[in-house]
TrEMBL record:
<protein>
    <submittedName>
        <fullName>Uncharacterized protein</fullName>
    </submittedName>
</protein>
<dbReference type="GO" id="GO:0003677">
    <property type="term" value="F:DNA binding"/>
</dbReference>
<dbReference type="InterPro" id="IPR000551">
    <property type="entry name" value="MerR-type_HTH_dom"/>
</dbReference>
<dbReference type="InterPro" id="IPR029442">
    <property type="entry name" value="GyrI-like"/>
</dbReference>
<dbReference type="GO" id="GO:0003700">
    <property type="term" value="F:DNA-binding transcription factor activity"/>
</dbReference>
<dbReference type="InterPro" id="IPR011256">
    <property type="entry name" value="Reg_factor_effector_dom_sf"/>
</dbReference>
<dbReference type="Pfam" id="PF13411">
    <property type="entry name" value="MerR_1"/>
</dbReference>
<dbReference type="InterPro" id="IPR009061">
    <property type="entry name" value="DNA-bd_dom_put_sf"/>
</dbReference>
<dbReference type="InterPro" id="IPR047057">
    <property type="entry name" value="MerR_fam"/>
</dbReference>
<dbReference type="Pfam" id="PF06445">
    <property type="entry name" value="GyrI-like"/>
</dbReference>
Length: 268
């Protein structure tokens, strides 16, 4: 046998794959040996090394073996350019997804650290302006049933392509809080890095009455009672809305009594 041919084992080692990969590609007529002698031994040529790496690279681009087979049978420069353009768009989408995921991870690290360093102190804080996506008004739905709230919650997440829902906060009206309607939400929201006309709004900068509540969501009324009493006792005029952020939730803590909710009420 001429030296430019390799046994299956030699060719597999050269390509850094297991021999069964070559057997499988042969069985599905994707990549066959250059020679099969009368004893059934398979031999691959040196030139096939480059064809094999075309297959590997196409797999890396996310193509199925079936699509790779079709491409190899029809390949030409124009088809390659079309394929590369399609895959370029797919890669750009994946890069964006990973960048968003990285931002979410960093945000969760910051909020979890903030929660671990928090205490039960109530105070006024100057908060900067925040850009937020705000849901449609859900006051009537959230007041009716938890199921109605969850329907709006999942719809809001889907519309914004949110996969880690712990990043979503809630907005409650101070009027409802004054009327002891502590669990009637007005809106859901999520922070944004950029202003998008018609989609995002500004949570105004200013002084907010802030507190951290450690415990189940169903018990946040206890913290609201404290916040409202603090405002009344200290002559603090409250604004229109309260904002809730869930710093520690079920993604980090299995016991609801250890959840941490940050509450920020607008002041005038």
């Amino acid at each position: 046998m001429h030296e430019k041919y390799f046994t299956t084992g030699e060719f597999a080692k050269m390509c850094n794959v297991e021999k069964h990969v070559l057997f499988h590609y042969d069985n599905i007529d994707l990549f066959k040996p250059a020679i099969i002698n009368e004893n059934g031994y398979r031999y691959y040529s040196y030139n096939q090394y480059f064809t094999f790496y075309v297959i590997i690279n196409l797999k890396m681009l996310g193509m199925s073996l079936r699509d790779i087979k079709v491409y190899l049978q029809q390949r030409n420069p124009s088809l390659l350019l079309k394929l590369l353009e399609e895959k370029s768009l797919e890669v750009a989408e994946k890069i964006k997804w990973f960048q968003d995921l990285q931002k979410t991870i960093e945000t969760m690290k910051i909020t979890t650290t903030e929660a671990l360093n928090s205490d039960d102190t109530i105070c006024l804080k100057a908060l900067p302006c925040e850009i937020i996506f705000k849901s449609d008004n859900i006051e009537n739905a959230s007041g009716k049933s938890f199921a109605s709230f969850m329907q709006e919650y999942t719809r809001f997440s889907k519309n914004l392509d949110i996969t880690i829902q712990e990043s979503i906060g809630s907005i409650l009206s101070v009027k409802n809080l004054r009327n002891k309607n502590f669990f009637t939400l007005s809106y859901l929201y999520i922070k944004s890095d950029s202003f998008i006309k018609g989609k995002t709004v500004l949570r105004k900068a200013g002084m907010y009455l802030c507190g951290y509540f450690k415990g189940s969501y169903e018990d946040t009324d206890k913290m609201y009672d404290k916040l409202l009493n603090y405002a009344d006792n200290n002559g603090i005029n409250l604004g229109e809305y309260s904002f809730e952020e869930y710093l520690i939730s079920d993604i980090a803590e299995k016991e609801p009594e250890n959840y941490v909710t940050k509450i920020m009420i607008e002041t005038l």
